[in-house]
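Case study B.
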Amino acid sequence: MMEKMMLLAVGIPFIFGVGALMLPKYAREAATMLATVLNLVLCVRMYDQEAMLSLPWGGYGMLFELRQYHFSSFILAAAAGFGFLISLYSLYFMRNRDKGNQFYAYLLLSLGMVNGAVLANNLVLMLFFWEGLLGTIFGFIAIGHREAFRSAVKAFILIGVSDVLMMAGIGMTGLLAGTLTMSAIHLPLTSAASCAAFLLLAVGATSKAGSLPFHSWIPDAATDAPLPFMALMPAALEKLLGIYFLARITLDLYALQKGSAMSVILMTLGVVTILVAVMMALVQKDFKRLLSYHAISQVGYMILGIGTAVPVGIVGGIFHMINHAMYKSCLFLTGGSVESQTGSTDLAKLGGIGRRMPITFICFIVAAAAISGVPPFNGFFSKELVYDGALECHWLFYAGALLGSFLTAASFLKLGHAAFLGRNDALSTRVKEAPLGMLVPMVVIAGGCVLFGVANQLPIDNLIVPIIGAQRAAGHHFSGAPENIFLVIMTVTVLLAAYVNHMYGVGRTGNGVGAVDHIHYAPVFHPIYECAEKRLFDPYDIGMTLVQGIARLAWRIDRANDWLYNVAAVKTALYLSCSVRRLHNGSYAVYIVWTVVGAVFLCIYMNA
Amino acid sequence: MTSLLLILPLAGFILANLPAGRAFRRMCIVLPLVLSAVQVLLTLFPKASWWTAGNAAGLSLGFLRIDGISMLMLLAIGLVVFASSLISTATVRDERKNRSFVNLVLLSLLGMNGVVMVTDIFTLYVFLEIVSVCSFVLIALQREQAMFEGAFKYVVLSAVATMLMLTSIGILFLCAGGTSFTDLSSMIARNHADYTVVFAILMFIVGLFIKGGIIPFHGWLPDAYSSAAAPVSILLAGIVTKVSGVYTLIRLVVEVFGATPKTSQVLLFMGALSIVAGALAALGQKDFKRMLAYSSISQVGYIILSLGAGGALGIAGAVFHLFNHTIFKTQLFINAAAVEAQTGSRDLDAMGGLASRMPVTGATSVVALLSAAGIPPLAGFWSKLVIVVALWKAGHPVYLAVAVLASLLTLAYFLVLQRKVFFGTVAPGCDSVKEAGWRITGPSVAFSLIIIAVGVAVPFLLDTILLPIGRML
Amino acid sequence: MLLMILLTLLVGIGFYAVLSKTLLKAAIGLGAVSAALTVLLFSMDSPLAAVFELSVCAGLITVIFVSVISMTKAAAPRDQKEAEPNHYLKYLPLLATGAIVFCAMRYWLGDAPVAQATVTAGVDVRHALWDLRGTDVFAQLAVLFSGVSGVIVLFKELKHDE
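Model:
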């Protein structure tokens, strides 16, 4: 029974996705809703059941293995929930936009791929579904508007490169372990090969989640792709998938030890991601781009948490994942309703709409508070757990994370002020609140943020602690109020400092948008920001320049090859042919002389 | 009954020259057709009792023996003579000339049959002379200036070859006391390091090289092939050179002279030289039949190369390529005859786009071209493959590389030929060209079918026919 | 010694026959070559071959040639004067190389360690011709026929045209 349900969970979104391509407008919307509802029901029904399925597929250990256990069913249910809510939202968002059939198709196909990747128990099968998302992401971005193609290609290439690295990691893991079945692999991180494989897998997983260095497609996608895509993929599903896989790598496939070199590398990656991305987020002038940089930044916390290899940190990281999924998608949904009601996401043009769109504004406040780590919302609790774990390893990591918190809070104060507060006569009169269909998902998710914060035992004890297993969780107490008061005091101090900073900034420039200008134009940061604006640090652009150079070189080689065959060989043959022809001058006396000379030479050869 | 293959053509010759009425004489024109057709049919059933009947009754001429390779050559001879005679009825208009052609063809049929069946070296020489004399006259049949020039060159160089062969036979007879293959081979096996014997062998081989058209002894070949009339070119290129030069070389090197390392080296080198020089010369030609003549030199080089490689595989490859070359070269010369008959010229630059006007000729020439270049699944590919494998097994990587690269050259000049004559837009002078008559296109189609059939059936034939030939010799 | 003289004579007359200007001189030269060959064959102890050579070639053929040529008219004087005179000296290098090759071959092959089988002497000619070498006789017949056809092909039309 469970096996069939697993197959259905993978198959239903696929079939409906293909169907959505072909159906006319109302039929496909109905089909999408039906698909997501069915998916949700199925996944909730499957929740916390154990089942395994193994079918022959390719040879050499590549089997069609699905496994449903606590972790995977949890992620599955979460993905299904987000899928349902975002579909509901996009019914209204996409109402007046074209290419709806492709949008819904990609949405359902992505859902199917995520389901498959989460349920997969075989490395190659998981890779199959993981890579399938390449296509759907590309399609999602490309249907945004006419010039979106370039961003789509950029996304495709960046994700593709990270997937290739993961493929290499999967290959090495399979070789080291001797099997490709994920539940059977458990390798120690002792040899160089296993460390290399682990790193490759980790890079692949974190890049899917959106961390450095394969992150630069997300801000471009934010401006080009339709907004529900941003709410669904980079915010929710990719985080779920990436961190799920990262957790599996560090817990199941490899045994990450606290304080080991791998752990330090992961934590460094996490902190660097947090800081770099949030610095970039600080200076953005576009609603969606700002949110997308934050999406990148928050992944750093998750990586930091899981990288500590300490039970507290791991629980914190996974909890942060689910929290982030909730508040980031809520933030994007609010951004979407702002866009659809006002027609723009440029912060300079927005302002003063808070009074006209109260529900959107309240959801925004809840989500922004959650992301900044304000108690009693869910972000605060997960961040505390992460800080606890980071501090256990080294105070540097803690300091970096805390700085990230400060900057996060500052940038969200700026965003909220610029978008919703202040005065803007042009907009203030004509905007209305978003339609009900767009509001419902926002409110539901915002409510979830509150719930997971106040009653955090529910998610932590029921959902997350079983993931890390009983023996690791023994002796620890995760839920409820944080144990370490020192951490709480530091957090509150940081939040107050952010508020002060914001007031200072507003006082200086007079409006919300310029609230962080004093950081933007500070002596050391200004040139760095300038370069970043010019995309000098973008690894994609650097890579593309390199690729251009290689392409030119290859073209040269091809020309030379061509010359060799078309010109050199032909000319040589013709020259030789002319010489031979000239030798045959028709005089048979010459021919007889040849005969005699030939005979004499042969004579000498044979007798010598 | 094998001597019937010799006696019947002679009887036919006498019959054709009886002082009977005009109607009877006109009927005698079909004599070579009938005789060659009968020969083809007989050789297709090598196990029939016809071949051995009459041997015990003492009715046969001495020194005659038929083994596998002789059977194959008889088949080839029959096919080419049939094609040549059929085409002569269409292209040689004058009735008197046609009768002369018939006479000479019958005699050359007799000569060639004799060459492939004898076991004595002097008899071999005499039958070679029959073939040579008939060829001289055939080339000059229509008595034009170019034909005389070609015939004369052939006469002179052939005389040199004859002299060399006779000298060699004399010395070998001196040393062995007899001229049959068995006497000679045992003598040579005993004395193979002696200068005199080596010299004699060399003389004979050089004579055969001249007859077969190997570089640098090939001076007569381009002029003779290109200037002769169409059916004569077919006969010459298809079978005369092969039988008198190449087949004899194979037979003698394997049975009589023995394949010593030095002989093998000579054969390999001359073969490779012919392949390359022939192909290069063919690239620059402007005359249809001259290009085909140089191509013949090149392909004969392949046969000699394979012979030099030695072993059962090498000899099988040589014989197979001999047969294939006969078939596709005859095919190409038939096409040349068709083109010459319809357009009146052999100049490549004046022609173009004939494939749309002469579809059968174009299609069959493509088949022959692909077989010559060694494209699967046609027959030429298999024989080239056997040659390459034989070279590899004998350990001659450089020659192998030469053979394979020269295949490219072969393809190159044949494609040039095809493009200039058949593909492209129709040239201004060729608008009114029609397809040639059935007497020319019939043999053309038949030969193409043979190429395709042999190519497809070779995997089945390889073990039953070819390898035993190689081991038998 | 005799051998040397005869061979040199043979080659010299051969050159004369090939290089002479008139057909009559060439035919007579051919006859003289055959005569020299006959003497050679006699001196090498094969009288039968010498007799055949004398009667067939030196006799029959030369007579036919001379009689046919005498039936033709000489070419117009104009053509004869414009013919290029033959410089015999330009063939000296050829003779020199020939002499060198001859000496070299004599040096290398002269020792003749190969045992020369003695052909059974005294075999009846008729037996040898008809029984032992019957196929050769048959082939010679065919050669004869081809020669005759060749002559017919090349020359018969001439009479009809004129």
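Residues 541-607 of chain A form one domain. The remaining cases will be described in the next quarterly update.
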